[in-house]
Amino acid sequence: MGVALGAIALVTFLSAPAQATDLQISPTNPRLGDTIAVVMQPSIPGDVAPTVTLDGTAYPVFPLGGNRYRALLPTTPIDRPGRKVIQVQGLGAPRNIAVTLRDRSFPVQRIRVRGGGSGGTEYEFSRVNALKEIVSPEKYWRGAFARPAQGRVSSEYGVRRYYNGVFAENYYHRGVDYAGGQGAPVVAPAAGRVVLVGRVEDGFVLHGNSVGIDHGQGVSSIFIHLSRIDVREGDMVQPGQRIGAIGATGSATGPNLHWGLFVSGKSVDPVPWRDRGFE
């Protein structure tokens, strides 16, 4: 299911002998749900970071060191596949880079859940939305993400669903589910800061007991349906550190862990982050 991220497209634009800009786009053949990395290296160091826009949305750009900058562009199963144009400004003349976003077939699943599968509280939705909107300048993660649980994958990213016989329009499974026994450990897949702890008794009736981690630079994770929570908001966690345990709280089919990964507010496929990761 993973997408190899090793392939890199190197595009060099020369607008003048003194102004050369290298652009690296990875992966070169993205498909729906992938995160697209755009790495820029101007030939002349500047004080202002370039800007990167896709489909009319400007995405944050962060320095990587060595006069390089990087933007992460999320795609989702409900995006329109086909030719996309990534616009880069602030490096001399505007650059337009064409990328083909490949279509992808997602399974359809019919499940029955307690609680109807759709109800939630305004409180929990507002807390989760706040998590997705965080764009910290720090980058906490390093390399590939780890598995947050050791059980088998019971539901893949992007699955379309019928909940209790009703098709969920414009919905896709925003993460990966891991089956596991009640109380099996859940660990942080990467370093970050705990910014969300939600409990059923506080109004997390859909998500159940939940933990949200800010990995930095617009990348965050959420872990839901937990039976217990072992961290507090504000804690810094490291890869492999226990943050809770698998459970069936909230709207769940049984004991499982749902791991969702957000990039600039959109739910992306966690598998490429787990298989190869991003610099």
Explain this structure to me?
By secondary structure, the chain is mainly beta. The radius of gyration is 20 Å and the shape is globular. It starts with 8 loop residues before the first strand and ends with a helix.
Task: Fill in the keyword field for this structure.
279 residues, single chain, 5-stranded antiparallel beta sheet, 8-stranded antiparallel beta sheet, 23 strands, 2 domains, Immunoglobulin-like, Glucose Permease (Domain IIA), globular, mainly beta
Describe the structure concisely.
The relative contact order is 0.18.
Task: Describe how the helices and strands are arranged.
Layout: E1 9-16, E2 19-26, E3 35-42, E4 51-54, E5 57-59, E6 61-65, E7 68-74, E8 82-89, E9 95-101, E10 108-111, H1 122-133, E11 153-155, E12 160-163, E13 166-167, E14 176-179, E15 185-187, E16 192-198, E17 209-216, E18 219-226, E19 228-229, E20 236-237, E21 242-245, E22 256-263, E23 266-268, H2 270-275
Parallel strand pairs: 10-12
Antiparallel strand pairs: 1-2, 2-3, 3-7, 4-5, 4-8, 6-7, 8-9, 11-14, 12-13, 14-22, 15-21, 16-17, 16-20, 17-18, 18-22, 19-21, 22-23
User: Architecture of the largest domain, CATH level 2?
Assistant: Distorted Sandwich
Distance between the termini: 21 Å
- The helix tally amounts to 2
What does the oligomeric state look like here? single chain
Please report the total strand number as a whole number.
Answer: 23
Helix/strand order: EEEEEEEEEEHEEEEEEEEEEEEEH
**Alpha-carbon Rg, integer:** 20 Å
What is the class of the largest domain in the CATH system?
A: Mainly Beta
Helix share of residues? under 10%
CATH-wise, what's the superfamily of the largest domain?
A: Glucose Permease (Domain IIA)
Show unreliable segments.
1-21
Secondary-structure class: mainly beta
Question: How many structural domains in the coordinates?
Answer: 2
User: In what range is the share of β-strand residues?
Assistant: 35-45%
Looking at the structure, the CATH topology of the largest domain is Glucose Permease (Domain IIA)
Shape: globular
Write down the overall mean pLDDT: 88
| Biggest beta sheet summary | 8 strands, antiparallel
